[in-house]
Amino acid sequence: MSLTVIFQKELFSVVGISLGSVLEFFSTMRNRPASDAVALLSINWFILGTLSSRTLPVIAHMLAPSAIRIAVQLVFKDIFFPVSLLASDLGIPGIYLVHDFITVEEEKRFLAEVDNRQWRSLSKRRVQHYGYEFLYETRNIDSKHFLGELPSFVSNILQKILSFPGLGRDQNKEMDQLTVNEYPCGVGLSPHIDTHSAFDELIFSLSTAGPCIMEFRRYPEGTWCHPTASVNEIHEDTPLLSSYITRKAIFLPPRSMILMSGEGHYAWHHYIPHCKVDRVGEKAIGRSSRRVSFTFRKVRKGPCCCPYKQYCDSQLECRNQQVKQNIVQSSLPLKREAFCPTDTDQI
Questions:
Q1: Which of these, 210, 282, 283, 306, could form a disulfide with 291 (CB 3.0-4.6 Å)?
Q2: Signal sequence span per UniProt (predicted)?
């Protein structure tokens, strides 16, 4: 059976890649060492997610023997990766999902409102900011630069948030920052934890215009290192790290609202895979031409004091400052000893 028959044209038109690019991809992997194969596989992760077990023999003869096992593991890992439909099945504390949070008519009205306003173009998507601008360079906001109140067309959403399930009486439910993201088909979001020092505990995200999968990743204590005090982001295509993390995913249909709070906000990376087809159980659900999310947050007025210190830039910064101070203090006696000999040294 030829590759042309196996990799049918319809499949690649949905996924968004050409048959020629797949042939070129696998031909470059012939006789490569396992490390090179894994690197190439990670870059083309979305290709492997579309393959079935019947294609594996074709793939296998193109790979170096040391890379075949890794390729098979990666293919089946994504094909059979479970996707929850309910937050209760997801099993992450602080994650809640409400289906049909808004009506179809409300969805159309919200989309019309943002389409009549000015978009800001990023490399792969468009955004709008209200209340405070989100600074992607630092993954933070300028709390001194207030853009004004949130637009009136979301007032109904803000009111409904007050009665959202999972909220305690003492939790601040007054949102003052809104980011609208427009994702074209096939575009996702890199894994990240929203910067602790930027926002309060509650993060609400409303999906409109199209569905997607949101994946959550949790690192065991001691295996993840905070990259900087302001950037809490990793690269999503790192297969060799996958054995050290817990992966869970949930399907976000249009008009659903997800709440990330507590552990689900502070300790789990969340991301949206870059693909044009999502696998949910045995179904392959194609993404729409675009997906527009409305993410509501509350700007934090002081440092974060959450119990997840490993992921908290506020507490890491304080700890780093304390370490620097301790180093300075501990070095002072050494300097005095170096330039001021003791009585014993004088003898």
A1: 210
A2: none
Strand runs labelled E in the chain: 95-98, 120-121, 126-130, 134-135, 140-141, 177-184, 189-192, 203-208, 212-218, 246-252, 257-260, 269-272, 277-280, 283-286, 290-297
Structure tokens at 80: 């059979």
pLDDT tens for 50-105 read 444 444 444 445 545 445 455 545 544 555 579 999 999 999 999 999 999 999 99
Rounded to the nearest angstrom, the gap between the alpha carbon of residue 101 and the centroid of all alpha carbons in its chain is: 22
* DSSP letter for each residue of 141-188: E-TT----SPPGGGHHHHHHHTT-TT--TTS-----EEEEEEEETT--
Q: How does strand 290-297 pair with strand 246-252?
A: unpaired
**Beta pairing partners, 286:** 277
Q: How many Cα neighbours within 13 Å face the side chain of 4?
A: 0
Nearest to 38 by CA among 239, 274, 190, 275: 239
Q: Are strands 277-280 and 203-208 parallel, antiparallel or unpaired?
A: unpaired
| CA 259/CA 131 separation, integer angstroms | 19
Which domains are delineated in the chain? 3-79 (no CATH), 87-297 (2.60.120.590)
DSSP assignment of 4-40 equals HHHS-HHHHHHHT--HHHHHHHHHTTTT--HHHHHHH
Burial class (CB in 10 A: 0-12, 13-18, 19+), 324: exposed
pTM strictly above 0.85: no
- For residues 277 and 15, the answer to whether their CB atoms sit within 8 Å is yes
SS3 279: strand
Q: Which CB contacts under 8 angstroms, 24+ apart, belong to 159-165? A: 160/101, 161/204, 161/296, 164/96, 164/98, 164/204, 164/257, 164/259, 165/96, 165/98
